[in-house]
Input
Amino acid sequence: MHHVNDRTYSSELRFAAEAEAHRALWEQGFPTVEPLGYAFRSHGVGVEGLYLTGYEEAQPWPRVFDRTEKALPQFRMILGALSGWGLWAPDLNATNFILKPEGTLLALDWDRSRWQPPGAALHGAYLRRLMRSLRRLEAPEEIHGLIGSLA
Output
């Protein structure tokens, strides 16, 4: 069990929607951690819960920025697949990518994701989201350039 969501939501539908999107990605062979399920309980006027995933030995991408150039084809594939399928995941930022020791890139966090018309607009939105995240993390300019080359 890897990810614990300790926020309060108005209903358990938030967890169900994330689980549905995550499961759909996993079943298509998308590079992400295995979704295991979720649990929730009443808390005040809403619910709090846990979102459970399989464990992967990996490091957050920001800790291994030096491996970015080798991972660029995987970034291109991930962004292309999400854009082609029409899945917008607004929380997909730099800290939601992990690199396994052998170099496999995985994407995480399907909270608030939603299906919409596929296409280039999504690809551009993902790149803008990543660039904004890199600025906030004060990532080296070289990393900005590498990710910018995916446009």
Q: What stands out?
A: The mean pLDDT is 90. Strands lie at 8-9, 35-43, 46-53, 59-60, 87-88, 97-99, 105-107, 114-115. The first helix runs from residue 13 to 27. Residues 8-148 form a domain with the Transferase(Phosphotransferase); domain 1 fold (CATH 1.10.510.10).
